[in-house]
Specification:
By secondary structure, the chain is of the alpha+beta class. The chain has helices at residues 15-26, 33-43, 47-62, 65-74, 83-91, 95-98, 102-106, 111-114, 124-128, 253-256, 258-261, 271-281, 291-294, 310-318, and strands at 131-132, 139-142, 147-151, 156-160, 169-191, 194-207, 212-225, 228-233, 236-241, 244-245, 249-250, 263-270, 285-288, 297-303, 322-325, 329-332. It is globular, with a radius of gyration of 22 Å. This is DUF4880 domain-containing protein.
Length: 333
């Protein structure tokens, strides 16, 4: 009897990331018997592998009702979603879960894999991108001889056109990147429904929500979105979203490049926005359960090397109550 090998292999890296990748695959509704066997071999390779898998499962079992509610709301787009059935499947990950049975039946089309509740593991889109960075990771990639891209945390990009060595452009699926183009021909970037084009330029693109922000650091960049077009030069910035493009403004260059220096600086920024930014760089997630406190204007600096200390800083500076849960989850109130 022949055995078909699994086509899925988690990326190299820490065992926690491999365990998360396996969770996504096994609960995607597309896992096969070969995947189940490959996972069994991975999980029994060492005590450390088994512990990494148990930690992924422990995160779910430790979620308090408030966080479980939030995860359920995020997954509510899936018809027939049942948090109870998902929780039961996670507590007892048996053979049906491996084959996409229990979880896939309760979450239509594997929504937990496509849009992971609480952002606790990579989505299928994350795993399929040509290049991606994990939470807190920065990465330098070369797209041919004339284009260099510095990727910030939680960023996904795909090559477009040309060939693998010399693409004509790229898609910024989500995240933030600094692009340096110095070729004889134009290089383009597609993101958030818009298109950027440059020949010799250095520019920063941030697409972490519905709005895209483009800052020209050097040279000249043409930005097109919603039937409009703007040309921006060094020190200028423009934003756009589904409602159209804004006017070109002078950029806060220090703020734009702060992620390259390894420090996050906040000056009169609402605490809710500060936490949202910190969550981009810190594994797990910080939740603020106090709307009034979220409106507090904050002045603070956080080193990316000690980003895990941010919740304690907020507690000490602004009097928040802090509760730690497994998986890097913190509740502030």
């Amino acid at each position: 009897m022949s055995f078909v090998m699994s086509s899925f292999e988690p990326e190299s890296g820490g065992l926690d990331r491999q365990a998360q990748a396996w969770w996504v695959r096994l609960h995607s509704g597309q896992a096969t018997r070969a995947d189940a066997e490959a996972f069994r071999q991975w999980a029994t390779r060492s005590a450390a592998h088994a512990q990494a898998w148990r930690e992924v499962m422990r995160v779910w079992s430790a979620l308090d009702p408030l966080l479980a509610e939030e995860a359920a709301r995020q997954a509510s787009r899936a018809r027939g979603f049942s948090w109870a059935s998902v929780s039961e499947s996670l507590r007892s990950p048996g053979r049906r879960a491996f084959l996409g049975g229990a979880v896939a039946a309760s979450v239509t089309a594997g929504v937990l894999a496509v849009d992971p509740p609480l952002g606790l593991w990579p989505s299928l889109g994350d795993l399929s991108a040509d290049y991606r960075t994990a939470t807190g990771e920065q990465r330098q990639v070369s797209l041919g001889q004339s284009v260099s891209v510095r990727m910030n945390t939680q960023t996904r990009i795909n090559r477009i056109g040309g060939d693998a060595a010399n693409p004509r452009g790229m898609e910024l699926v989500a995240g933030e990147a600094e692009v340096v183009a110095s070729g004889a021909g134009d290089f383009f970037v597609e993101t958030g429904g818009g298109r950027l084009q440059a020949r010799t330029a250095r520019f920063n693109i941030r697409h972490t929500g519905p709005q895209v922000c483009v800052t020209c650091i050097d040279g000249r960049v043409t930005v097109s979105a919603g039937g409009e077009q703007r040309a921006i030069e060094a020190g200028r910035q423009v934003t756009y979203d589904g409602n159209g493009m804004r006017e070109v403004v002078r950029a806060d260059m220090a703020g734009v490049s702060s992620w390259r220096t390894g420090t996050l600086s906040f000056d009169s920024t609402p605490l809710s926005e500060v936490i949202a930014e910190i969550n981009r760089y810190r594994p797990g997630k910080i939740f603020l359960r106090n709307e009034e406190m979220g409106r507090t204007l904050v002045r603070m600096q956080v080193s990316l090397r000690s980003i895990d200390n941010a919740p304690v800083m907020i507690r000490e500076l602004y009097g928040a109550r802090l509760r730690n849960l497994p998986g890097g989850i913190v509740v502030l109130s």
